[in-house]
Amino acid sequence: MPEVSLIWIEEAGLEGLDPAKAAKKAGVALSDGGLVEAAVVTTTEARAPRSLVNRLKGYPVKWLDLAAEVGGGPLALRQARAAAAVARAAGSAALGTMAQRYTRQPNQEVLVAGRGLAAVAAAHQAAALGHPVLLALETTRARAACADEKPAEVKRALAGLPAQVEVVTGTELVELLGAGGDFQARLQGPRRTSRRRFGAVVLAPPSAYAVPGDMPATAEDITLPVSRLKPKQYQGGEQWLQAAVIAPLGPGATAHGFARAVTAALALQKRPRVQVTLFLGEAKVASEGGERLYRDARRQGVLAMRVEPGGLRVSRDGRKLSFDDPVLGEPVDLRPDLVVLSEEVTGRAPAWLDNPLVTTAWDQDLPDHPRLQAGRTARSGLYLIGGARGAAPGDPRRAQAAAAAADLHGLLSGEAVAVPAVRDVLCASCLTCVRVCPHGVVCYAEDHIAPAPAACLACGVCTAECPAEAIAPPGWSNREMIASLAAGLKAAAGDKLVLFACRNSGMDAARALSLAGHQWPKGLLMVPVNCAGRVGVQLILRALSLGAGGVLVAGCHQGNCRSLNGNLRAKLRSGEAADLLAQVGGRPEQVRFMHLASNQPRALAQAVAELAQTAGEK
Amino acid sequence: MAVKTIKTPAVIIGGGVAGLAAAIDLSRRGLSSLVVERGPRLGGRVADFCCKATDSCVRCGACRLADLVRRVAARPEIAIYTSAKPVAAEADGDGWRLTLEPQRNNGPAPVVELAGGPLPRRSQVQAGAVILAVGATPFDPSAKSRFGYRRVPGVVSALELEGALEHSLAELAGGRDPRRVAFIQCVGSRDESLGHLYCSRVCCGFALRMARVIQARRPGTEITFFHMDVQTYGRAWAGELAEMREQMNFVRAMPGEVTAGPGGPQVVYAAGGRSQTAEFDLVVLSQGMRPPVGAAALSQLFACTRTSDGFLGSDAEPVASGAAGVFIAGSARGPMSIVESIEHGAVAAAAAAGHLQPLVREAAHA
Amino acid sequence: MEALLYLGCTVPVRNLNYELSARKVAAALGVKLRDLTEAGCCGFPLKATDQAAALVIAARALAQAGEGGLTLTPLCSACTGTLAEAAHHLDHDAAARRRVNRELAPLGLAYRPGVRVKHLVRFLLEDVGEAAIKKKLTRSLEGFSFAPHYGCHYLKPSQVLGGLDDPEDPTSLARLIELTGAEAVAYDSMKECCGGGVLGADERLAGRMAGTKLVDLAAREVTALALLCPFCNVMYEGQQKTIAKKLATELKVPVVYVTQVLGLALGFKPKELGFKLNRIKPKDLVKAFK
Amino acid sequence: MLLNDCDPGFKHQVAAEPGGQGIKACFACAACTARCPVAGHVEGYDPRRLIRLVLLGRREEVLASPLIWLCSTCYSCQEVCPQQVSFTEVLTAIKNIAARAGYGPPATEAVIDQLAAHGRLLEVGEFENQRRTDLGLPEVAEAPAHFQKVLGVEPAGGKS
């Protein structure tokens, strides 16, 4: 239950009444208007001072025309009426407005910005899930595809869009504030700029093919990228026409880039008296049909030649390729009549996405994050799909779009937990929470900290890092956690231990152990957290001061944290707590941190056993 | 005795990661589903996979199973029958009528609390859509007898290594302390002689992750990686692979055979144009994926097509099966990783929801 | 039970002990062997230079055999391989069949699909069966040990000759040997090729190849190397002395035919099985059953 | 070596020869070489290398090479090949081409003569048949006429 404050505004009709008495009787705390977990104000919104109205904006407040409720009569009667009215209002502030206050209704509208098949597919899928969708295509022609797609296909897909998709063209997303449930987007149209709010945003920036940078530089007049190759133009005469097709050679080569090179090689090889030598680093046959294609090309007569990185050299005039055939162990030269360079899908996330001041939404390692699939970015409610994410044209993009749409639907239909509450009275506007929020949920807008309504995962990183105890997702404030720690430790028998366990790793591992009948130490108190990042120095020290002989924080492995670096923060804070303990003459080994995965129950059991031993040593 | 008929919008055959992901996604779309798992527990093959993180997460996705199971258990609209298998199916209007039969299982007991439990008796299910998420079947390395599987001591499959990774490798290596470990890739993959004209995609990453775990646990363990082409994908791998090439011995050769040597299994491979023999304590065969064992029966049961590689579904589309109202999710459709299977499950659910939409509307009107 | 015996070129001239023991064993096991008279060469020697001619020659033998409808059972693995491959090829390639039959027409022959070719030993294993063989055995060879040599063309290419045994882990000869009570020795070089195929091209090479197995076996206490192909016999028995000289080592590995081993267990005397003609004899074995 | 000087048509020629069909499928995994019993004994004999020479189109070098005649036809390479290259048969195809191009081993003529004369590699004369009779084995008849017709040759002297 949130703490409800009574904000007493003196005005006509309340003369003689005792605010403190009324508050006490109603079971609420009297406040000067700073404490805003939930509030009852004794006047109407219209009559209240503007500064107060502004401060309370967006929070569950029961505006009460107390003067009217109290009416006239003896003071004792008026005092009793006042107390009853405040109590009623407090109840409604706490309960009735709690839903609105703690989980503000997320905006259901979805913005899909970009172009090509991924964009259209995402719009289609989101609409199918019941969301109104604005599909903002950045090109003036609606059917304009990404450079690696066919316009006809995009046109077909557009024609099939349901009615609740509004399509605008020539419109670009140039600024995005907020987070899941409440994004504020600035859209630059052909004529004017507009601002609109959305619950979720899917970015499908244009993608194209580009020749990787590490390709050998052969003479321009004989060199072509795959996308410009027209195989029908080539055929040999008396002499065989020698073509070199160079597949992506570097360590970043993808199966799609390889398949594209092989497709080109096969088409050329089918031409009369053309001999294709296909250069490759690794035969990346992991795409669907890739192995078949590679086999067909060889059967057609394509000569597949593996070269080590940097092993394909070009003469100064750019007309001779030299390499060592690994099978023969001999140097081989080729004077190609044609060099075809393969390309990889490229697509860039918009530059503003990479701006650390906006949020840590994106960096290039994120596509591989095991918990940021389905097009998710670190910023909840913001999705990046398509070529920028490395998806190949065709079905992979549609699949990604479908997955992203399903994910955002889950988010907007309330799967996420409630937004953090901010106690403005304590907030120093230091913006630590804005800076540390891994999901871009905590924003600063209109002169106060304003968390977005749907995107918070209640990881509690803001709470742990806030120097003023001014922000916490409901249920995760220091006060609440310490209270439950105290109660739990009081009930614990024997050597008391505390395990702070992330729900994504430690708790699942613990649950697996419990289900398997594992015997935990008697005095162990398990405290689940949504992210180990919730566990700051203060919680650890409080656990010790409340009688715990040891504290173990179990967070996810590096690179696996759903909240990006909550685990690393927890590790850092555990270290700090241990250091502080050492400074006051305690034993630092009483505080431990471990990286863990949900499927490592044995490691957890062992760590807890070791902690118990440490605690027992005293 | 009247046979009980369960009515559900969607029935999902297979309770592995793809099936669970599909169930969760359907429920997000407001659709209930029934998950039918043949084994005694959820999770499929992933349930046997351990975490391969060393100094950091290696993005295998095995840990994701726990949250899928947790989320499935938390959603009352997802019903689960374990130890159950469809034995009959017929198209019924726009949907399907299935007969489920209980399966006797001697495997490990379920280790997660679940909504639902073992199928008590033969039952009928009336469903608007069917999602087949039965997974792939690992290739049995003894079909490539030259690698000495089940014949030469110290030769194991990658899945056996997986099972022992958290415990003792010495047992696998016939009591020897495995200081020299070889991996042989593409056992059953990229093999036209078996009719397997596909790369199984995940085995290189799987093997290399395990190799790294072994080296992290026992520094100094020599790892030899026999391969044709390294098929890792994803941006993070590029750097990691460069590191691994420093720490392990990458040999680009498909070995000719594995024989029993005096000090352990010996790998016969070609280097420098002739045959060489190297002795190891442990030889790990990276077996590929095969179409699900029941693919033929299932494709007959549900009148669905097979891909050119024999998996369920069609080459042309990611989740369609050629049969109305039947969709394929996960590695039953073709080799894919855990994370990809989870995504694929969501895509299959999207397609199934699309199929169900008119039915749901009709029901609302009725 | 009947089968059509195909002698080929080498056996009826050089390996009479093999032929003798094979005929005795077959008869004792109730297999009536009919001779494919006028059979001659299977075509194997021509394959390297003229496959087309080799195919016609093989087809000739197959066509002759086909008329009786009996399984053609060569004693020589090379003949088995060549004839089985030819039959496989002609069964699956109608154009090749037409071509071949045009050539055979002047001889009054034509190949018709479906001719079965099986090495005689395989015929015994599959058509007579191990249980039936076991029943007929009258003597135990316990205490003796044989190193089975499968050779190449008894099992490979498995595409044509598959179904009997796994060429990577063959067991059929070992099983046959063990039926007699003798031990079938598992040894490292079991799958080594005898080198007979290159004897004509490079004698030194052939000798080195055969030498691997001989050296391996010389270091073991085996009664004999047991084989089923005259080509392998050329290398392991015929060339053994030369090989020993070239390798500058002592070699005295007795060599027998599997049919001789079987013959002993069926109660025949060594003399009846042609042991006199074995150049490097397993003396203890011969003595034991005199 | 300059690839432009090689003959890209050579691999197609080998593939067109019976048994040669599989050659182009090779993806150089080297399983064949690992199992080749000849490769272990003869420097330069390497099935994978021979295939590569054909694929590169080094025609003369392959056909004139004494190495191509050293295959023991044990079929090990063929058994282990994941791409069904069937190298033993590929080599037979190459040898046939070489023989037609005049690179054949000298022994060929002798084999043909022998077959034309006797219908078998080893003559079965009176002496041999006498020996067989002594051992209780049936006599063997020669049928060279058939072979003469098939091979299109006359018996080179000797008895017929």
Your description of this structure?
The complex is a heterotetramer of chains A (618), B (366), C (290) and D (160). In chain A, the strands form nine sheets. A five-stranded parallel sheet of chain A has the order 7-6-5-11-22, covered by helices on one side. Chain A contains 17 helices and 30 strands. Chain A is flat, with a radius of gyration of 32 Å. Chain A has four domains: 4-102, no CATH class; 110-208 and 347-415, FAD/NAD(P)-binding domain (3-Layer(bba) Sandwich), CATH 3.50.50; 212-342, FAD/NAD(P)-binding domain (3-Layer(bba) Sandwich); 477-617, 3-Layer(aba) Sandwich (Rossmann fold). Chain A is an alpha/beta fold and 618 residues long. In chain A, helix 13 packs parallel to helix 15 (537-545) and helix 15 packs across helix 16. Chain B contains eight helices and 18 strands. Chain B is elongated and about 65 Å long. The longest helix of chain B is centred in the C-terminal third of the chain and has 28 residues, at 338-365. With 366 residues, chain B is an alpha/beta fold. Chain B folds into two domains: 5-136 and 291-365, FAD/NAD(P)-binding domain; 139-289, FAD/NAD(P)-binding domain (3-Layer(bba) Sandwich), CATH 3.50.50. By secondary structure, chain C is α/β, with parallel strands linked by helices. Chain C has a four-stranded parallel sheet, with helices on both faces. The two termini of chain C are 30 Å apart. With 160 residues, chain D is mainly α. Chain D has two domains: 3-100, Alpha-helical ferredoxin (Fumarate Reductase Iron-sulfur Protein, Chain B, domain 2); 107-151, no CATH class. Chain D has helices at 9-16, 31-35, 47-56, 59-64, 76-80, 87-100, 107-118, 126-134, 144-151. Chains in contact: A-B, A-D, B-C, B-D, C-D. At the A-B interface, helix 9, helix 10 and helix 14 of A face helix 2, helix 6 and helix 8 of B.
